[in-house]
Amino acid sequence: MPAAALAGQDSNLQPGEYEVQMRLELPHIEDMSAQKTAKVCITATGTHGIVVLSENNPLIRCPASNIKESGGELTFDLICEGHNQAVASAKFELFRERFAGAFDMKMGGKNMTMTERQSGKRLGDCASQPHS
To answer: How far apart are CA 96 and CA 81, in angstroms?
Structure first.
């Protein structure tokens, strides 16, 4: 379904400010997972403002495509432009005031794969309106 068609679709996920726990997992490396907590303003449509949170990650600037939401599940792809660039596929479960899921990422040119797992919990309304 095109992203424009999703714009009118209601989601169970309530917009607002969410505290998101993030863990970056690197395959075959036990003690190298990075963790952090961030506050994100979740929106009502599209990817809902769910983004890659790991630092120094080129995927944060890449457009989302293939956005699909059905039955409380949100999936989409992040594909950076250019040859041999980074790509990711996202799969999240959406609930009324929380979400959980992961970005499976492949960094272009480096043959490196990793997974960013996220879980978010609604805190309340956003301090300012997002620009999405």
So the answer is: 34
